[in-house]
User: Fold these one by one.
Assistant:
Number 1:
Amino acid sequence: MDAARLDRVRAAMAEQGVDLVLLSVGADLPWLIGYEAMPLERLTMLVLPVDGEATLVVPRLEAPRVVPRDGVFTIRPFEEADDPIEIVAGLAGPVGTVAIGDRTWARFVVDLQHRMAAGTAWRRASTVTGPLRAVKEPAEIEALRHAAAAADRVAADLQGGEIPLVGRSEAEVSADIGRRLLAEGHGRVNFAIVAAGENAASPHHEPGGRVIRPGEVVLCDFGGTFFPGGEGAGYCSDITRCVSLGEPPTEVAEAYAVLHEAQQAAVAAATVGTPCEEVDGVARTIITEAGYGDRFIHRTGHGIGVDEHEDPYVVGGNRTPLVNGHAFSVEPGIYTPGSWGMRLEDIVVATDAGPDALNRVDHTLVVVDA
Ligand code: ZN
Ligand code: ZN
Ligand code: ZN
């Protein structure tokens, strides 16, 4: 466990009047103690009071996977016949305000709400952990840089024509990209969107049996997570590049030029002190003024770390000013239903020396013969 992170969580709890944090499935727990809860019907839960010792309640059979940290948290294994809800409620005691991990399964939340005192106030743990996780420490930025460089190498394969496209299905290319992400050091593949031609107009298109044809633009958006420990240290990559199989039609080339300009301008605007929504606004204004405003149908970006999507969100309404260490994607897109779609995505870190774009691979619409 990172004792410094635990101290920061406790300080934020005290500041927000949170007496107890309960963390289960999701990225908060690995970020805090280096252990990821199995998404099981058996409960794993860190019980973290604002004062006093933290306890990890864990099924007996999972306990061997927990690296003990003496003086930081106690491991409380439970047997198959035990009731972990009772154990957590007992450790919690009577408590005023509980913040529970956002991804905790509803069955456990409901059971805990029944078991704990009726007057207990419940809120999401992300109100405590989100702003802390969003600001990366130097080692976390290096891990993100390592992950981004690995994703860049796969994108370079794509742009270099080393990943066969024409005649293969989107699903085959997706699997190929996934294998390359693993070969470049990722521990797992989180997604590998491959969207050909008109399918790219759906930003989160599910790659399927659709065969890629000559002359099409193919959108590839992929990322994974490095294993904890070692370089990459449990952090995520996420990149989008589009390639064109042959010279793109004028309409597509013109739109891509606007997209490219918007993305680079938004990256350049991501300076310390700039509100997140202003970074979104920079990309959106360029795209809107070129006449594509109604085809840019999502926010400009999301934070990234141990989770693919976390704070800070680069979206209208988020007035949070960027601080040194905020890491997030900048990924505007233009989508024309029935015809084509395009997106350009880098991971960027706001630093006192200016925006640091971690993805460096070619940003143009590369023409490939593959
Ligand atoms: Zn996305
Ligand atoms: Zn992406
Ligand atoms: Zn993304």
Number 2:
Amino acid sequence: MTAFEVINPATEEVLQVVDLLDEAAVDDAVEKAKVAQREWARQAPADRAAALRSFAAVVDAHVDELAALEVANSGHPISSAEWEAGHVRDVLNFYAAAPERLSGKQIPVAGGLDVTFNEPLGVIGIITPWNFPMTIAAWGFAPALAAGNAVVLKPAEWTPLTTLRLKELAVEAGLPADLFQVLPGKGSVVGERFVTHPDVRKVVFTGSTAVGKQVMAKAAAHVKRVTLELGGKSANIVFDDCDLERAAATAPYGVFDNAGQDCCARSRILVQRNVYDRFMELFEPAVKGVVVGDPRAKDTEMGPLVSKPHWEKVKSYVPDDAPVAFRGSAPTGAGYWFPPTVLTPSRTDRAVREEIFGPVVTVLPFEDEADAIALANDTPYGLSGSIWTDNLSRALRVSRAIESGNLSVNSHSSVRYHTPFGGFKQSGLGRELGPDAPLSFTETKNVFIAVQEA
Ligand code: NAD
């Protein structure tokens, strides 16, 4: 077993040392999870529903504690962290309704009765990234548990603390200890073992597209089910017929939320050429107005980047000769601070094509609707995006033409727990959230019962 120092990204102080588990520990956890799953699946649906509601209630009672822990571990502004902890509660409450609603079907057939059952898969392995540790964990474990499965979950090395706490809260709420296990460890050890272990029947992976491809390739050896939530390079398209003041005032929050460490970040702003100069005039004070600072302060809108290695990666996209249009401010001194940064590069620049995952946005002009659509789709990704226009027909035409899983018109909203979320193209496979998520943790079993002639 090795240990990992978890660091506060706003102060660079060591918060806690977490033991990283090895492969044998994963195998042991999966054995225990298999036993717990069989007992869980045998429980009455109403009892499983009640257990999930209790879990939600205990999370609700600890929202402040979980939020403070996320602020310290991930550098999220306190207002965001409070929303994230409350979101975990809401996701649990939403899926607490599922055990009593996974009703299968009765299908008319000749000679008998045909019914389908939504059988749980068994043990589910969930691998989460560091950018939204609590919320992304809940998107997996809540519907998986609701559908009658056990869960083993590996948080990202940099940000395990809130997920470890959620596991304790589950036990406090009365869930069996082995039903939902959090296993901190390296991706190449614990994560990889989830993928190769024959008794982990599905892997839900959220992270980079590069690692997601490896997960999918290795899962194929077992015909293992996968859900993949991967990278993004989403467009924020600003047409000349929109409310330009609102588009410019909100654009920073479409990309700099969570310091740009957001798979849905609208990191390419595309502006119709005839309003480009006016947009930039309005955008500059909006960017400079983003409040970057101590994540514990109520009015802070953006905290630090998560770690020093990640800071270095983001910095590589803003070399000394980068085409910087303007920048916001950021604290100096300890902490991995990076100011909101606006670039105006060429269409083929690396900053336009690659996911930066930091507070760096590129702005490009476009000519007309066809050019905007072509530019927005000119990426291997397809996760999110925004369309600003007051023309309803255009909003619908462009929404249908953009190859992306989650679009918003005249806003930057992407995630609601009751609507589906996921990516087109190399942004992923499958959907999380929404009413159908529990079904993705089940197999459909068809049973025909012959009726004898009287
Ligand atoms: P990452 O791919 O480096 O790591 C993600 C997780 O996978 C971590 O827990 C890591 O330990 C684990 N891992 C690493 N190697 C592994 C392996 N060989 N086998 C199994 N697991 C392994 O990603 P990250 O840097 O933590 O997260 C940032 C990325 O996540 C960005 O690309 C972002 O767009 C993406 N993301 C996507 C969504 C979405 O919903 N589409 C949401 C959040 C983040």
Number 3:
Amino acid sequence: MKAKSILVMLSATIVWFTLSACQLGVNDANQDPNQQSITIFSERHYDTDRVLYDLFEAETGIQVNLVRDGADPLLSRLENEGEDTIADVLLVADAGSLERAKNRDLLLAIESPFLNEHVPQNYRDIDGYWYGVSARARVLVYHPERVDVNALSTYEALIEPAWEGRVVTRSSTNIYNQSLMASFIEVMGDQGARDFASGLVANFAKSPSGNDRAQALSVLSGEADVAIMNTYYIGVMLNSGDATQIEAAASLKLFFPNQGTTGTHVNASAAGVVKHSSNPELATQFIEFLLSETAQRHFTTNNFEYPVNPNVEWDSLLLSWGTFVPQDINLAVLGENNNRAKEIMDQVGWR
Ligand code: FE2
């Protein structure tokens, strides 16, 4: 009996050690103890990011461990773990989430002349807590046989009676739409943003469901005529290997709204060094790598995002859509206005 108890305890200990090792991304028992490594907490859901980590490892010899989750769970985890966190870098798909992380005291301000030079001012925190790494525009995607391009102008114009029952976008729980609204609060004021949201809900073709790609498929099928969605999904769909997605991406057209007024809404994936990182220098080196020409080219050619580093040319697909004027705001406002945006969306019945 006693021997059996010892065996059970021994097995439990082995399981605990194995689980701890897996969580740390340490799979090799014979690993060099001098091996430098960093741990990235990432919200980005793109498989192509692994190539970036491999490139960084090859260039620097620093091993990258990855923990993937939603932005809110990652922020909560950093808060709960405090000084004990294994994280060095927080990487998210929405710059507003990093502004919220900064305000919750989860990030470390860094001094990087390289980042200050290669990230335009609108795409980084003024105090060095976070930096945009790749950008995407949230645009109108329409069916050219059902929509005359001359009928398109601004986001706000979609609330006119002509668009009743013809517009789709995803739900208000989605951070991309929350940040779209947060930007509208900034450029149109509270009332303008509210009028847009309530008018848009009135013109929805259906109750919001599915991701950005599902909105494009709704337009292809005739369920709706216009979708509000992110640019890079068109590239991702074209390269998905899925016949329906390819058909949607090839036949639908993309329109940059609010040219000549408040500009098209642009958001960015962004990265910051975790406040309690045990390797802030390596973490900074990783973020600088994300802004290097190699990494920036990868973002645009493999995930169809806009490079943030202005020295890097856009992928040919992005060039084919043409240039556009973005909103003139610092992306910090996406985080600052997030609660207000959610409140308005809730009040107007955007589900
Ligand atoms: Fe996405």
